[in-house]
Amino acid sequence: MTSTDKNIPVVAQSDVVVVGGGAAGVTAAVSAARNGCSVTLLERYHHLGGMASGGMVLVLDDMVNGKEIVVSGIVDEFVARMQKEGMAVVPPEEDRYASDEMYRKWARWGVHDFHQAQKPQPIVYACAFDPDAWKRTSLDLVRENNINLRLHSWFSDAIVEDGAVKGVICQTKMGRQAIRGDIVIDTTGDCDVAMAAGADFSQGQYIVTTVFRLANVDTDEAERFEHEEPEEFAKINRQARRIIGGAWEMWWLKTPIPGVVWCNCPHMPGYDGVSVEDLTKAEYEGRERMMGLFEYVRENMPGFKQSYMLGAAEQVGVRTTRMLQGEYVVTKDDIVNRRYFEDTVCRGRDYYTPYRALLPRQVDQLIVAGRHYSAEPEAQKRSREIPPCMVQGEVAGIAASLALQENSMIRDVDYRKIQKQMRAQGADPGDIPSANATGVDSLAQSA
Ligand SMILES: Cc1cc2nc3c(=O)[nH]c(=O)nc-3n(C[C@H](O)[C@H](O)[C@H](O)COP(=O)(O)OP(=O)(O)OC[C@H]3O[C@@H](n4cnc5c(N)ncnc54)[C@H](O)[C@@H]3O)c2cc1C
What we know:
By secondary structure, the chain is an alpha+beta fold. The protein is built from 13 helices and 22 strands. The protein folds into two domains: 3-53 and 135-205 and 321-446, FAD/NAD(P)-binding domain, CATH 3.50.50; 207-318, no CATH class.
């Protein structure tokens, strides 16, 4: 912050400032508020949810290690609230196993364990949901927890004094505005605050996607065709994937609204998810590709003949950009070998996240949560699903409140206290490693 910035009005002041209202940010804000902090939540867009709503990424997965549910906490409240509205679908426990029948019944909801090599892949605890239900749930939780929400506030600079973050500056329609706080949680997904505050980061990049939805799809007919005429289906599906130019095998999935499917494609490599030029080009390219696929399946794919284009997601789907280089950088080996850390504070699937991976090395009173956490890009690729990002947020909120209660640096908060509070609020801190964890070692060994 420069000397001229003294003229910027301070529009809010709170114990904790959370920057970025995606899945990780909303969870962080709720967690901090429930632990007694006053909280301001800043978001650049008009909605909350980030990729989970604006990006139309509509399946919560990576919550199980085999049969064991290992991701829990505030994410469960999202599932329960959306289920109550009929806007979330979870396979019942009795259907969660591997069989051809269950695969046919459930795979087009995206609730199968796609990390398993076995075929058919087992049906597991996962949740298909509606994007607007996610936005409503986020707003409800924010209001119920008395969080000071400021939408339309684009973070532009960090206020750093004596090596510690003291707040942030946002660009708004009303000009620049300052928001001061004792602890800042960066949940922008792109390390925006950490970078501005002078923390080390690395540059990751991966495919981007303009997710879109089709309506009036006869999903029963589409599934019948897939399972009862597999050779003909494979031929048409191959061509559809060729036209979109990169897609997972299951490029369309059901949503809670009958006849509406979401399409997790196209895969567009070579785009930098923070570059204005690249993101602009991606809007054009994504739309061209999705219209090509739409026209082809409407002509050729049983079940899609009466479908229509509902449109692309509000936000281009960005998976990886800048990643924090924090006190510990999680490696691909850590993830694939299911390495357990003594200071594990949360987990996803079969991997563990140490508290140090949320902490920048140089900057004080700043913590990050979400897809830009401190990991190698190849590790993040395997560990960035929505629920694990949310538990990181839950940890960040608890850590902020502990630091404030103890009048200490957030990096000095005792991870055991975080683990304890995670359990107290119904979240799994991953402190008890599963049987398939490896390298159960001490902090001293892993430093
Ligand atoms: C196409 C695609 C498919 C995926 N498929 C799945 C899947 O099937 N299941 C799954 O669980 N995960 C999936 N993922 C991964 C998952 O969606 C993300 O990793 C996760 O949602 C990230 O959450 P986050 O809160 O960390 O970040 P984000 O959702 O990116 O949230 C960041 C928030 O910060 C805000 N923000 C950013 N910069 C600023 C700023 N300067 N000022 C103010 N606000 C700012 C953003 O607007 C946004 O609201 C997919 C991702 C993509 C892109």
